[in-house]
Structure formats: structure tokens, C-alpha cells
Design goal:
seven-stranded mixed beta sheet; 40% helix
Amino acid sequence: MPSQPGLLDPWEVLLTGPRPDVVRVGLAVPLSGPLAMTAPSALDLAGLAADEINAAGGVAGRPVELVGVDSGRAPEVVAAEAAALHRAGAFELLVGFHTSDVHRALERALPPEARYVFTPPHEGGARRPGVVRIGQSPLEQHAAALTWLVRHRRARRWVLLGTDYVWPRAVHRAARRVLAEVGGEVVGEALVPFGPADPGPLLDLVRRSRADAVLLSLVGRDLVAFNREFARAGLDRRVVRLSGALEENGLYALGGDATGELFACMPSFAAADGGADEHQLALEERHSRRSGPGAPVVCAYARGVYDGVRLAAALAGGRALRGRRSAPRLARADGLAFRELTETHCA
């Protein structure tokens, strides 16, 4: 895997053998695949978390080290490698930021005693003992946002567009339930494979259905590519878009959006105008001091990884803690920034 500052190569770790004097945490971050554009943010915040833990004395005197796993590959490849590394003693706990198909594969492949913290929004459903999910379920993440858009933007006719794997399918089920309760309706739906594809059929579906709004559960570069084509087709100024996966890296890759019709319901935003909480602001300040003014943005995914590493260290120290949950949030893209709509907190 590519070398990253502060991130140990797992195969070098195996060559040096176990280190009982350190706590090794596996860090499964997408260095390849559709979410790779978010990896620099996630790696920086994981490193900040480890540095802060170690500056405070580590885990009962043992420093934390991060062992990298590229979680952007096929689910079965990531799961087989992570399970083998855990069994060989390369790491004690795993912190994972990746898509939910990789999450499911890891749950199946890791040994029963393995402790695994999954940090982004998740697909819901059952989880096995030893797995902690600190993100939101599809219903928790999307219900308030959908309700607000139906009531305040009269976005009643919805098309649901996503990638064909477990998280978007769960998002679509949750959206159908919410929209039926608040007076909206689903007038079209499509699930597509990962990777570059002809956006024409999806854009045609939006036009034919006379949709007021589109719920996007594409991720990473696929989400960016679709939004670019959506704008080129001239749909961006008259059709509301809502995404549960759009964060600052994706907005920057788009070149921003000033239509007033692009919304996101990620759990935190670095650029929210007065909406970031004190924890978020303090985190950004510490990140800037550590990595300088050119550091990657503290996006929602990166904040989740930071919290995940800290939680893993607490678990390694014998503390049975629950993940820190965020309240539902909705923000509108405004140029290269997100501006939070605080009304959704009580919707």
C-alpha cells in the first residue's frame, strides 16, 4: 500500500513481530476506489487522534500506532486481508472508514473476538458483538432532511438514485417510509454499479418523471461525476438534490455550487456558517496547528475517523464506551462552503 506519514505498513509490522509495549490499531481507509478522494482528510485526522492519545500517556502507558489497510478495494479482498492481519497480530483493534459492503464483509471475516469500530453513516440492521458503529443509520440521517425539504421547499416528487450495494438500498427504503409519512412520493428509482457510467439514462429518468427532487446515494467520485453532468444538463437550478454522502472534498471537486438547490445531510461540516459546534471548531484548530494551512479539510468522514481512533484506544484500555452520535443536520451548498439549516434539528 502507499506509504503515509505515521501509518505503518502491515507487512512490515508482521516482519518485526508483536509489540506488547504498544497498542496497534488497524486503520482501514480507502486509499483507492471511489472514496479515495477523502483519504488525505481521514489519514490526517487519524494521525491527530493518535498523537493526542500518545501525548496524554497513551493507553496505560502504551503508545498507539496505526497500521494501514486499503479499504477501497473489493470487499472480499479487504476482509480477507484484514482478518489475516488480525489473526497474525498486526493490530489489536480495527477502525474502518469505507463503504457498507466492505463493512458487511469485514463483520463476516473478522474473528469473533475482534473489536471493530465502523465510523461513517451505516446501513442499519443487526451487528455482531465486538462491532461499534458511530455513524447514523439511514433513517436517523435522512428523515429530518427529507421532511424539511418536503415542507419548506415543496419537494414532493422524488427520484432515488444510488449505487447498487447495501447502504443505498437501505437509504432508499428509509426514504420511501419517510416520504409516505410527510406527503411526498417516489416517482422513480435506479441503482447503478460503481465506476464511470453513462449518466444519460439517469438524467432522462429525472426529466421523464417530472421530479421536484433527487435523493443521491452515490459516493465519492461517482457522486462528483453525476453532479457535474446534472449541472451540464441544466437540471441543477430547478431540481433539488439531497445527498447523505456529499462532504467538503466532494464539494471542492465539483468546483462548488451556487444554485441554492444542492443539499447534504452529513453529520458535520467544517465550513458551516456558525453551525459547527465547539468540538468541531477546536478540532479544526488543533488540526491546523499540526498539519499547517495546506492541510486537508476536516470533513465529516475525517471527523468520524478521529472519533473512531479515540474510541478504539478507550476500548483497548478496557473502557466499554459507546460511540458519540451526532444530531441530524442539513446544509445547503453555497459556493465552496456549506451553510447549515438548523431548523432540521427539531423537524
